[in-house]
């Protein structure tokens, strides 16, 4: 079509520019980012020479190029375009024009994904007020900004602020747009994501299960939004430790995504990653590795080696090697990963914190305890400051530091962290969450090593039964809890009980 129009009207006719831009936009929607860039970069140069750099069409083409860079994970390239673009829109169209408002929205979203939340907030909070004045409180674009601002609060660990926006947003959407409007359905998912971030998995489940039924009826079983909800529900089951329920959703979801979207589509890669993590959580690490190795290679080819998703997949694969006891292979992934993440995402980005935590844990398992502590002690302070003391990543940072103290035999230091950690884990994640069970196991081990065997027994004696019910009787955590209980009985001289457990 574009070739025929070029032949008829000439390559530099305004209609040709429009058709090329539309084709690039279609490539962007299809996830074919390289083809979109191949069209947009020369198009913008030619458009600038014929129309001028401040022409609205040139600005809109540049906005599409910035969106393509954003989708590729080239966030700094997107940012450099968007900062200039916003000024140009303000100068050309004015501060209150819809294109200018949308340019604000996109710039804030890029800051958000760079984990530069303070800059995102500087744009989103005044933008929301301006949109309320110019467009109205209930205009869809105003509601979109409310949703995005809620996401920024969520990622900063400001869950109450996020809920204060998301709950009324959802109520407004239900009344104005209807309970089955796409925005309403999407924002229901977002509220469930906030609950998941808080560790309120039951509340998330109560939203997602009926939402999925609605989506299947309204949009169809293979609609992208329906597939995203299936993914969210699978993650929620996994967060609850209901791994078999998660697998029942995730395995067919992956096959559906491959057949509808293609094996290399970004959403298919997400499905692969989530399935691999579920296998890992179940303790079936080889099955996880069989998915993660090809996933990492595909992501490098499709998104590039420094894309946040590629970094995430590399981190997950390193963690699987770690759990298999293949520490050198874990290290070969984790050391360069931390450096790349620091350079690309920043030292205080939540994922850089996670990657550094995992690297420290590998150092600890290799007996390089001092090197582990050099990372873990300052990292815990950063995590508390950036993410908050109750954030799951902060809890994980605390857990890892405790494990290093245990390996060093510094049980008193471990105890000072572990008791409040367990209390927080119970309140934030729930008493039967897998991480809470691991924290009980660790506290029991600390008591045992400090000579408080009776205290250890009181914690440990019911743990194997709970772990069997939550994780299954063959899960590594269940086996470890049985082993630890047997050791406590040995310490107390209850050899017959120890023998029964060991057999």
Automatic annotation (TrEMBL):
It holds the Pfam family TPR_10. InterPro entries: NLR-like, TPR-like_helical_dom_sf. This is Kinesin light chain. It comes from Rhodocollybia butyracea. The lineage of its organism: Eukaryota, Fungi, Dikarya, Basidiomycota, Agaricomycotina.
């Amino acid at each position: 079509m574009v070739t025929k129009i070029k032949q008829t009207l000439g390559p530099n006719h305004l209609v040709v520019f429009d058709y090329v831009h539309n084709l690039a936009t279609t490539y962007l929607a299809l996830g074919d980012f390289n083809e979109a860039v191949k069209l947009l970069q020369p198009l913008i140069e030619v458009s600038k020479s014929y129309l001028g750099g401040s022409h609205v069409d040139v600005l809109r083409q540049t906005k599409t190029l910035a969106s393509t860079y954003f989708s590729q994970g080239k966030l700094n390239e997107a940012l450099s375009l968007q900062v200039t673009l916003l000024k140009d829109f303000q100068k050309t169209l004015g501060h209150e024009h819809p294109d200018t408002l949308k340019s604000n929205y996109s710039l804030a979203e890029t800051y958000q994904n760079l984990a530069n939340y303070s800059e995102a907030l500087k744009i989103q909070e005044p933008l929301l007020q301006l949109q309320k004045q110019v467009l109205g409180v209930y205009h869809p674009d105003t509601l979109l900004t409310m949703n995005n601002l809620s996401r920024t609060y969520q990622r900063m660990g400001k869950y109450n602020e996020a809920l204060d926006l998301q709950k009324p947003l959802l109520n407004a959407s239900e009344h104005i747009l209807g309970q089955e409007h796409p925005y309403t359905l999407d924002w229901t998912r977002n509220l469930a994501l906030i609950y998941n971030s808080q560790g309120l998995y039951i509340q998330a489940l109560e939203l997602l299960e009926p939402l999925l039924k609605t989506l299947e009826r309204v949009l169809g079983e293979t609609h992208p939004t329906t597939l995203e909800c299936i993914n969210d529900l699978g993650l929620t089951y996994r967060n609850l430790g209901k791994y078999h329920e998660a697998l029942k959703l995730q395995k067919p979801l992956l096959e559906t995504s491959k057949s509808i979207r293609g094996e290399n589509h970004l959403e298919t890669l997400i499905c692969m990653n989530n399935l691999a993590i579920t296998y890992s959580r179940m303790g079936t690490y080889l099955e996880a590795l069989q998915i993660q190795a090809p996933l990492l290679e595909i992501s490098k080819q499709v998104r590039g080696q420094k894309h946040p998703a590629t970094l995430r997949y590399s981190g997950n694969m390193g963690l699987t090697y770690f759990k298999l006891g293949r520490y050198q292979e874990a290290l070969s992934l984790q050391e360069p990963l931390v450096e790349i993440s620091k350079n690309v995402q920043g030292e205080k980005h939540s994922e850089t914190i996670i990657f550094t935590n995992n690297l420290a844990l590998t150092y600890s398992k290799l007996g390089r305890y001092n090197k582990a502590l050099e990372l873990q002690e300052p990292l815990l302070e950063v995590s508390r400051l950036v993410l908050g003391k109750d954030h799951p990543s902060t809890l994980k940072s605390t857990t890892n530091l405790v494990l290093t103290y245990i390996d060093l035999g510094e049980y008193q230091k471990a105890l000072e962290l572990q008791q409040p950690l367990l209390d927080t884990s119970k309140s934030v994640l729930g008493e039967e969450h897998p991480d809470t069970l691991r924290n009980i196991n660790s506290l029991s081990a600390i008591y045992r090593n400090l000579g408080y065997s009776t205290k250890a027994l009181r914690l440990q004696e019911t743990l194997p039964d709970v772990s069997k019910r939550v994780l299954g009787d063959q899960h590594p955590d269940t086996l470890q809890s049985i082993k630890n209980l047997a050791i406590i009985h040995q310490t107390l001289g209850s050899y017959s009980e120890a023998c029964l457990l060991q057999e």
